[in-house]
TrEMBL record:
Superkingdom: Bacteria
Xref: Gene3D superfamilies: Amidase signature (AS) domain
Molecular function terms, GO-annotated: catalytic activity
Pfam family membership, one: Amidase
Domain Amidase: 27-436
Taxonomic path: Bacteria, Pseudomonadati, Pseudomonadota, Alphaproteobacteria, Acetobacterales
Name of the featured protein: Amidase
Family under the similarity heading: Belongs to the amidase family.
C-alpha cells in the first residue's frame, strides 16, 4: 500500500472510505497538498475550487459515517476539463471571450458524477476552444506542462486533465475528444484515456459542440479499473440527446477476450512516426500476440483523405457558429482568427460534403470490422515537444479518423522512450465496442502493468 494518499486509485480510495480507514476529507487534504506542491510547475488548473471540494468531501464523510454512500465514486476527487460545464464554476473554454461565463447547470456527465458523490476539484486547463495543435498555451491561462518533463507539452486539448491525473491531482479526469484530445494527452502522460463511441456518453447543458458528432466526453485515469468505473457512471442514454439512444452494447465489461483478430497499423498515409513511438507500439503489438490474439500488420482499410480533406471545414464552420454574435477580432489566437476567416469561404454545400465524407468513413470502418475485431495504432505519432510550440503535423495522424468514424478509441500505455517519456498505443473497435476495448486493455495491463511508474515532479 502506498504511503502517499494522493497516489491511490479511485477504487482503493473508495475501499478505504468504506472500511473507515480513511475519510474523503483526509483524502482531499492530501490531494490539495499535492496540488500546492506540484501544480506551480505544471499549471494544470484553470480554476481550483478548494472551498467547493471541501464542502463536498465533508458531505461524503457524513454519508460514509451513516453507512449510506451514494455510489462507488462517493468522496473521490475528480477534475473536469474547462469546456465541460460545472454549475457555479467559470467555464472559460481557454479563451478571453468566455472569461465571465458561469454556467448554472452541470453538463450531463458532470451531473452523473456529482449525483454519485464525486468531489469536483476544479476545471483543468485547455487549448483555446479545445482546437489547439498539440499544446495548451493560452493568453488567459498560460502554458500547461508535462509532469514527466516540464519543458514539454502534456498534449491537447485535455492537457490539463492529463497532467493532473499523471501528477496525483485526483485519480480521474473528465475530458473531451473531438480529434484525439483525450487519447494523445493520455499517451503523452502515461494514462489510459477513452474516446467513447458517439452517443455512449449523453450530453446536455454544455457549450456549443464545435466538431458536431465527432466530439465526445470521456475519462482519463491511471488504471483500467478507474476508467471502467467512471465510464459505468457517466454512460447511458438521455431522452434529450438523440445520439445517445440506441448505442449498441455491451454496456458492461465482457469476460477477458480470447483470440481477437487484431489489425496493427504502424503508419497512416504519408505521415512519419517518431522512432521510439514506432518501436514501442510494435512491441505492444507483439505483446498482444503473446496474450493469444491473432495480430496482423497492415494498412488502414479506410480512405484517410476523406477525413483530411474535410476536417478543416468542420472545425472552421463549427467555430464560426460557436462565436456568432461575439466580437472576436483581436481577442482570440491567430490560428483561430484564420479559422474564422476560412469559415467565410465555406458554403453550405461544402459543409454537407464534409458530413457526407464522414458518413463514408463510417461505412468503410463498418466493412473493415467484418474482418477485424480491433485495430491497433500509435496514439500519437510524436513524442512530446516544447510546451510553448505547436506540435508537428504527424503527431495527430492516427486519432481524428476515429472521431470521424464515431468509433471508440482507447489509449493504453506501452513501453516508454529511452529517456523515460510515456508512449501510448491506440485500441480502436467497432461502433459500440467500448467495453471490449476496456476488457482488452485490462488484459494488457495485468500482463504489462504501468501504474507503478510516477513522474518525478
Amino acid at each position: 500500500m502506498t504511503d502517499n494518499i494522493w497516489q491511490l486509485p479511485a477504487t482503493a480510495l473508495a475501499a478505504r472510505f468504506r472500511d473507515g480507514s480513511l475519510t474523503p476529507s483526509a483524502a482531499l487534504r492530501a490531494v490539495l497538498d499535492r496540488i500546492a506542491a506540484a501544480n506551480p510547475a505544471l499549471n494544470a488548473f484553470a480554476i481550483l475550487d478548494e472551498a467547493g471540494a471541501t464542502e463536498a468531501a465533508a458531505a461524503a464523510d457524513a454519508r460514509y459515517a451513516a453507512g449510506k454512500p451514494l455510489g462507488p465514486l462517493d468522496g473521490v476527487p475528480v477534475t473536469i476539463k474547462d469546456n465541460i460545464t460545472v454549475a457555479g464554476l467559470p467555464c472559460a473554454w481557454g479563451s478571453e471571450l468566455y472569461l465571465d461565463y458561469v454556467p448554472t447547470a452541470d453538463e450531463t456527465p458532470v451531473a452523473r458524477l456529482r449525483a454519485g458523490g464525486a468531489v469536483i476539484l476544479g476545471k483543468t486547463n485547455v487549448s483555446e476552444f479545445t482546437l489547439g495543435r498539440g499544446n495548451v498555451d493560452t493568453k488567459s491561462f498560460g502554458t500547461t506542462r508535462n509532469p514527466w518533463n516540464t519543458a514539454l507539452t502534456s498534449g491537447a486539448s485535455t492537457g490539463g486533465g492529463a497532467a493532473s491525473v499523471a501528477s496525483g491531482f485526483g485519480p480521474i479526469a473528465l475530458g473531451t475528444d473531438g480529434g484525439g484530445s483525450i487519447r494523445r494527452p493520455a499517451s503523452h502522460c502515461g494514462l489510459v484515456g477513452l474516446k467513447p463511441s458517439t452517443g455512449r456518453v449523453a450530453r446536455r447543458n454544455g457549450l456549443p459542440i464545435i466538431l458536431d458528432d465527432a466530439e465526445v466526453i470521456g475519462p482519463l485515469a491511471r488504471t483500467v479499473d478507474d476508467l471502467a468505473l467512471t465510464l459505468s457512471i457517466i454512460q447511458g442514454p438521455l431522452d434529450e440527446d438523440r445520439l445517445s439512444i440506441g448505442v449498441p452494447g455491451p454496456h458492461e465489461e465482457p469476460p477477458p477476450p480470447k483470440g481477437l483478430r487484431i489489425l496493427y497499423v504502424p503508419r497512416i498515409a504519408q505521415w512519419q512516426v517518431d522512432a521510439p513511438v514506432a518501436e514501442s507500439c510494435a512491441e505492444a503489438a507483439r505483446k498482444l500476440a503473446a496474450l493469444g490474439h491473432h495480430v496482423t500488420e497492415g494498412v488502414l482499410p479506410v480512405d484517410i483523405s476523406l477525413f483530411e480533406k474535410h476536417w478543416p471545414s468542420i472545425g472552421a464552420a463549427g467555430l464560426s457558429w460557436a462565436l456568432r454574435g461575439r466580437e472576436w477580432r483581436g481577442k482570440i489566437g491567430a490560428i483561430y482568427e484564420e479559422m474564422m476567416e476560412r469559415a467565410e469561404t465555406i458554403s453550405a454545400a461544402d459543409y454537407i460534403d464534409a458530413l457526407n465524407a464522414f458518413r463514408e468513413v463510417q461505412a468503410q470502418f463498418a466493412v473493415a470490422f467484418r474482418d477485424w475485431d480491433v485495430i491497433v495504432t500509435p496514439s500519437a505519432g510524436a513524442l512530446p515537444w516544447d510546451a510553448t510550440k505547436f506540435g508537428p503535423p504527424h503527431h495527430r495522424a492516427f486519432t481524428g479518423i476515429v472521431n470521424a468514424g464515431g468509433l471508440p478509441g482507447l489509449n493504453v500505455p506501452c513501453d516508454p522512450s529511452p529517456e523515460g517519456l510515456p508512449i501510448g498505443v491506440q485500441l480502436v473497435g467497432p461502433f459500440g465496442a467500448d467495453w471490449l476495448l476496456i476488457a482488452l486493455a485490462r488484459q494488457y495491463e495485468a500482463a504489462y502493468p504501468w501504474a507503478q511508474r510516477w513522474p518525478a515532479v
